[in-house]
Design brief:
Blueprint: H1 6-22, E1 27-31, E2 37-47, E3 49-54, E4 60-64, E5 68-73, E6 78-82, E7 96-101, H2 105-108, E8 110-118, E9 124-133, E10 142-150, E11 162-167, E12 173-177, E13 195-199, E14 221-224, E15 228-234, E16 240-245, E17 251-256, E18 292-294, E19 300-305, E20 317-322, E21 327-334, E22 337-345, E23 350-355, E24 361-365, E25 368-377
Antiparallel strand pairs: 1-2, 2-25, 3-4, 4-5, 5-6, 7-8, 8-9, 9-10, 11-12, 12-13, 13-14, 15-16, 16-17, 17-18, 19-20, 20-21, 21-22, 23-24, 24-25
């Protein structure tokens, strides 16, 4: 006969009470520092989720950094693994990255994804590819994969790939290319690190890009002087916005204007991690000054500019995930100006933000066990 001591019973009771006290409930309320409230529903956990995009039927494609693409069925919360993912250079900040659909996906089935790859010398760089997906098949698989763009050159280290993707309203593919923690390539015309890239949907180079006389590679550049851009989105007026991580503080939210230089590493509102100061943006007026900057850091990742009706008063507001700040930051955009207006404490690193088909805001927490959350108005 099994006997359990009184001390053992007390210990088990303590564990159960602790679990109930500290485990976040499946459904709960999130309150911002300006008084707004959202209702959160937990849809399950993932292994280092990095990005997501909605399918026309409301299902989700979710990337996991180690190299897995998950087709997540929001109706019953089941999931399938999509086959045909290329080998990724997993480690540090690298692995499988962003994923978006072609604007005419329902006709052509093109899916665009970014990832880190390694060459035979061990150097790494970001890649953007496209492939066709037919999720209704018995085993969803990417077919006809073709690489459209690579970071040049590959370098040592495994940080600052950026590789976020967005289509413009007129159908161009925009790519954020981080400076791979090498700093000065952001100002180079012969390296595409530290740039915003603009391509046609098939990977060819538009002939109206701004830098036509700086060499063949520079013809792909839209802007330069960037550090690590982990968010990119077009607003309701068709203007392009990005955010990027500063060095030690000085994160930026930028209106991206054709042909402009954003100053990294020559200016920043932050300083080097070593403590060496960097000249402030206002000392070099030839460089674009960020519309919003953060000291201390929020460590931004993921970005939407809201266009739905579920949160009707928040139309054209940006929502930014915070890693270091463990928050969601709401930024009001008014023409060319922007300002932070509210911050929602999440108590978890937020990796990704996405707008759902019915206007809900969806977020992915970072790291192993990161949850998928659906946020709707609180009533």
């Amino acid at each position: 006969m099994l006997r359990i001591s009184f001390k053992c019973c007390l210990f088990l009771l303590f564990i159960l009470l602790s679990f109930n006290c500290y485990t976040t409930p499946v459904n709960y309320t999130i309150e911002g520092d300006a008084g707004s409230r959202m209702h959160a529903v937990d849809f399950g956990t993932f292994n280092e989720p990095w990005a997501m995009t909605f399918m026309p039927d409301g299902d989700l494609l979710i990337t996991e950094k180690s190299g897995t693409l998950v087709l997540f069925h929001t109706s019953d919360r089941s999931r399938e693994i999509v086959q045909g993912i290329p080998e990724v250079a997993y480690g540090g900040q690298g692995g499988l990255g962003d994923i978006i659909l072609h604007p005419q996906y329902e006709e052509n089935h093109w899916v665009y994804l970014s990832y880190a790859e390694m060459d035979e010398t061990g150097k790494r760089g970001a890649v953007v590819a496209r492939a066709q997906l037919r999720p209704d098949s018995s085993k969803p698989e990417l077919e006809n994969l073709e690489v459209l763009w690579r970071q040049i050159p590959k370098v040592t280290g495994s940080g600052h790939y950026s590789h976020r993707l967005a289509f413009s309203p007129d159908g161009y593919l925009f790519i954020t290319s981080g400076e791979r923690q090498k700093q000065m390539p952001a100002q180079s015309w012969t390296q595409n690190l530290g740039k915003v890239i603009r391509l046609n949907a098939d990977g060819s180079v538009p002939d109206d890009n701004p830098f036509q006389d700086k060499g063949e590679l520079a013809k792909t550049f839209w802007t330069l002087g960037h550090r690590n851009l982990l968010g990119i989105s077009f607003d309701m007026q068709g203007k392009l916005w990005t955010h990027e991580m500063g060095p030690q503080h000085g994160d930026e939210f930028n209106l991206i204007i054709r042909g402009e230089n954003y100053g990294w590493p020559l200016v920043s509102w932050g300083d080097q991690y070593s403590g060496v100061p960097i000249p402030d943006h206002n000392t070099r007026p030839e460089f674009h000054t960020p519309e919003v900057y953060w000291v201390p850091t929020i460590a931004p990742s993921g970005l939407i500019i809201y266009s739905g009706t579920l949160f009707s008063s928040w139309q054209n507001n940006a929502f930014i995930g915070g890693l270091k700040s463990e928050s969601i930051i709401r930024v009001r955009i008014d023409g060319d100006r922007a300002e932070e207006v509210e911050r929602f404490s999440m108590n978890k690193r937020i990796r990704e933000v996405e707008q759902g088909p019915q206007g809900a805001i969806w977020v992915l927490e970072d790291q192993r066990g990161g949850r998928l959350l659906k946020l709707t108005p609180w009533e």
